[in-house]
């Protein structure tokens, strides 16, 4: 690469239009930038682009995702890819701070003043945002033939009251990370039941091969609900009854599942007490630093585990479906963020154009490669580079598509707080049955 120089702001030399900063070159934006003297490049040089005023400005609010680049880089690439629209990025906290991201969005959308024009939304908020009338129905912009390019389950998750109120973006699901070398040493077979997992983890700990047997997320936060939903489902239980009108979280299947999590800390001792205050990143760190044998987490962890600058376990990690209870089936909690247009946006056309770009095969591939976020378009799972860099994605495609949703209700924000609080109390006190029955009673009042 030549000419990777920073030009002092304000200097206007003949060669300035080809003096891009290194990041732009690395991002492959150079061609587009040279050709169009776009906003991003020009402002980096301290000159105002001649036609900035002709551009429609829209705002995009989103949680910030963790990866080899930031979401701001994607926004910049969009701005540089065309000359009609400028997107202003409003960065919210990371998705692990789910409640804060949710509140940030609600505060803005509830003003009904059209800001932000576009937003990303956790799959659990779609029903609530749609029923509040904040999310523009997108059916006319993305008719049936376009929707056929996405996983039917994701389209269904983006549909509320018969209308498409979100555009599929990425799919997330809980995964079982394991250390290949340690599994090899302690039996050779990846455990499929929770009991086998606990036994193998305890053995590896005893042998001094792993400080921690199993890491998961017990913090009183959204991710705890995710961990709970999947382990409960892996015992045949669930949060809501089949008709969605009452809670069955106080039933035996759910109680036994949460009891297992309690026991990982207090009985089998394969998990440290600290998991009770850990969400995604604090539990990821000891795993990628080589201190743990097994971990439950999302797909974003894989590229980090394979990055020599961030990980001590490069090439030692693989991913499998989460274990299940004897007689049960493996289950993964459905996560992921989808795109929405503010129903009060006055710039719908621009918003739709940005949405289309964000969810395009190219951008979804970039999201998968650089952020470890799984595409909502099945075709991308076959991408050769993705298969080479993150082989688990294609092999676990059915884990993503078969994931178990959290309760689908416009009241989800209330349901999750009840769940977070009761499950957390159950895990701290060990009064699992009583706490889960209290949760059921509370949830019955909310959804009943
Ligand atoms: C991930 C999931 C999201 C979930 C969150 C919880 O970002 O994609 O659905 O709510 O984790 O921390």
TrEMBL record:
A GO CC term assigned to this protein in UniProt: ATP-binding cassette (ABC) transporter complex, substrate-binding subunit-containing
Single annotated GO MF: maltose binding
Presence of keyword Signal: yes
Keyword annotations of the record: Periplasm, Signal, Sugar transport, Transport
GO biological process, one term: maltose transport
Gene3D superfamilies tied to this protein: Periplasmic binding protein-like II
Family as reported in the entry's similarity comment: Belongs to the bacterial solute-binding protein 1 family.
PANTHER family in alphabetical order: MALTOSE-BINDING PERIPLASMIC PROTEIN, MALTOSE_MALTODEXTRIN-BINDING PERIPLASMIC PROTEIN
Protein name: Multiple sugar transport system substrate-binding protein
Source organism (scientific name): Rhizobium multihospitium
């Amino acid at each position: 690469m030549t000419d990777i120089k920073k030009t002092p702001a304000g200097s206007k030399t003949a060669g300035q239009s080809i003096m891009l900063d290194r990041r732009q070159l690395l991002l492959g934006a150079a061609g587009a930038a040279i050709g169009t003297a776009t906003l991003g490049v020009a402002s980096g040089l301290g000159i105002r682009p001649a036609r900035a005023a002709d551009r429609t400005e829209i705002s995009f609010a989103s949680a910030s995702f963790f990866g080899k680049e930031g979401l701001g880089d994607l926004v910049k690439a969009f701005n540089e890819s065309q000359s009609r629209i400028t997107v202003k990025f409003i960065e919210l906290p990371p998705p692990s701070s789910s409640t804060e991201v949710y509140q940030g969005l609600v505060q803005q959308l509830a003003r009904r003043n059209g800001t932000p024009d576009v937003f990303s939304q956790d799959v659990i908020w779609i029903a609530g945002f749609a029923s509040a009338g904040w999310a523009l129905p997108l059916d006319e912009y993305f008719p049936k033939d376009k929707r056929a390019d996405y996983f039917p389950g994701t389209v269904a998750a983006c549909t509320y009251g018969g209308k498409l109120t979100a555009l599929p973006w990425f799919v997330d699901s809980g995964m079982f990370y394991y250390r290949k070398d340690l599994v090899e040493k302690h039996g050779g077979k990846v455990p499929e039941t929770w009991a086998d997992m606990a036994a193998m983890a305890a053995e590896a700990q005893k042998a001094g091969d792993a400080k921690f047997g199993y890491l998961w997320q017990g913090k009183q936060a959204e991710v705890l609900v995710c961990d709970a939903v999947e382990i409960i489902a892996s015992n045949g239980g669930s949060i809501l009854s089949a008709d969605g009108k009452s809670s069955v979280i106080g039933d035996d299947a759910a109680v036994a599942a949460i009891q297992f999590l309690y026991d990982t800390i207090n009985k089998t001792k394969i998990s440290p007490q600290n998991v009770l205050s850990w969400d995604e990143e604090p539990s990821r760190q000891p795993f990628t630093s080589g201190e743990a044998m097994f971990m439950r987490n999302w797909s974003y962890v894989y590229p980090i585990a394979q990055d020599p600058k961030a990980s001590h376990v490069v090439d030692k990690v693989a991913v499998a479906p989460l274990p299940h209870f004897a007689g049960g089936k493996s289950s993964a909690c459905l996560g992921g963020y989808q795109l929405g247009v503010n129903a009060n946006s006055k710039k719908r056309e621009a918003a739709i154009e940005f949405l289309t770009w964000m969810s395009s095969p190219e951008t979804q591939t970039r999201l998968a490669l650089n952020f470890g976020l799984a595409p909502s378009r099945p075709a991308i799972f076959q991408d050769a580079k993705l298969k080479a860099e993150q082989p688990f994605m294609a092999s676990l495609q059915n884990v993503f598509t078969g994931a178990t949703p959290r309760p689908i209700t416009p009241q989800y924000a209330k349901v999750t707080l009840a769940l977070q609080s009761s499950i957390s109390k159950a895990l701290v006190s060990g009064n699992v049955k009583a706490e889960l029955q209290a949760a059921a009673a509370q949830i019955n009042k909310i959804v009943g």
